[in-house]
Amino acid sequence: MIGEGGYAGKGFMVITSRPEELAKKIDEDLGRGITFINGQGYYSENDLKLIYCVVGRNEMQSMKKLFIASIHMPLLPLQMPMKSLVKALP
Length: 90
What we know:
There is one protein chain. The chain is α+β, with helices and mostly antiparallel strands. The chain has helices at residues 19-30, 60-71, 82-88; strands at residues 2-4, 9-15, 35-40, 47-56. Strand 3 (35-40) and strand 4 form a beta hairpin. The longest helix is centred in the first third of the chain and has 12 residues, at 19-30.
């Protein structure tokens, strides 16, 4: 999950093997629209769906909690230094 954006809100891009499940959860719990972006893994060449969703500042913690509870993986912010990123990976 990557968080980006300015002061008013954040755009989250999520790569998961269960995009429909997470999209449904975002819609039900936060009432937010979701955009699927088609992608492909470089090494695996597997097709995948990326999830893009914009939330307000007051919803950011709810989005992070929802993601962590649904997918059981740590949040990896876009601005995270590579050293921290490697430590955070399972």
